[in-house]
Amino acid sequence: MERFITEANLQQFAATLAGKKHVLAPVASGGTTCFRRLVPGMRLDFSRMAVISPKDATFPRNETLLLVQRYVEESGKKLELKEQLPEGECIVIGSRPCGARGKLIFDPVYETEAIKDPYYLRRRDNTLFITLSCDRPESTCFCHSVGSNPADGTGSDVLLTAVEGGFFARAITPKGEELLADALFEEAGTRAEEAAAKQTKARELMGQAHDFSSAAAKLLERFDDMGFWQAQSNKCISCGACTYMCPTCYCFNITDDEAGLVSRRLRSWDNCMSHTFTLEGSGHNPRGTKAHRLKNRVGHKFSYYPDLHASQIACCGCGRCIKQCPAGVDIRQVVMAAQEYVDER
Ligand code: SF4
Ligand code: SF4
């Protein structure tokens, strides 16, 4: 199904949806653009890519897994556990293709024969993505180097492309077709051709893609070469911004938050660039230096994960880690340095 919607009507459509459901959308905030829960008075801001992807929709930065209630009675102490499975539907409006596709990296990890994470699966199955294709890729974008493109509909229910006066909308899933049945959407007319031309132009603006086809093997070759990893990580200050910005990072920590007789078991995003990530109770740390930690972060995304999961690189090329790194560490350059390395020892 293909439709057209004016910009004003898209704002109206989003506001109406937000009155009925949880809608996550990019809004202007503090001089930048961030995904927020849309509430009355907020307007969609499509002027630039949001600082953090809408990963919160399917994998929130903090979520309560369990509530634990303690009772002290004459007969003794009792514990009651209440599982807190997420309820309701979420609609993400204005993700970029990298964010919608990036969430798919979670599936082989959170849904296996042995493990089915009920919190993640419920959120994933109850979240719809109305994605906006990119027309002005930034210098840090490289989705075309990891099997995608600025108009990739993978992982989305609807793909919007900006055209004269509004947006061309293409349904990708049956749920997307239901959304486009809303009366605010009009006949698409000849806008499909205009949208296709815009998409082609955006792809051309990205230029030549990097060839990461030898990355998995070459990163493994450098596994024990800590001199290489020391050189790559010299600039890193271990701030962890790269992992927090990343749509495909899926590590978490579990903590208990106690308040009197009630406590909450929380799951929160973790950060493999922090020295505490693998710190053991004994004080030993198998990834005790930032060189070890960068090796793990890059190796995981471009080598270990693809080896386990059908050669799929665990990076959607959004470039957020490059753009937000205060020290100028560029994951593309690290991978290419490993690929081009000539061992003269
Ligand atoms: S954002 Fe940059 S400086 Fe911060 S941990 Fe990541 S690589 Fe290191
Ligand atoms: S590693 Fe960097 S470029 Fe790749 S998905 Fe994560 S933030 Fe985006």
Short description:
It contains twelve helices and twelve strands. The protein has 345 residues and is an alpha+beta fold.
List keywords for this structure.
345 residues; alpha+beta; 8-stranded mixed β-sheet; 12 helices; flat
Write the layout of secondary structure elements.
Blueprint: E1 2-6, H1 7-20, E2 22-29, E3 32-37, E4 62-73, E5 76-83, E6 90-95, H2 97-102, H3 107-110, H4 118-125, E7 127-132, E8 158-163, E9 166-171, H5 174-180, E10 186-187, H6 191-205, H7 215-221, H8 226-233, H9 241-245, E11 252-259, E12 262-269, H10 290-308, H11 320-324, H12 331-340
Parallel strand pairs: 2-6, 6-7, 7-8
Antiparallel strand pairs: 1-9, 1-10, 2-3, 4-5, 4-12, 8-9, 11-12
The structure holds iron/sulfur cluster (2 copies).
Textual characterization of the structure:
The structure is a single chain. The protein is 31% helix and 23% strand. It is of the alpha+beta class and 345 residues long. It has one domain (2-340). Helix 7 crosses helix 10 (290-308). The chain is flat. The structure holds iron/sulfur cluster (2 copies). The site of one iron/sulfur cluster has 12 residues, from helix 9.
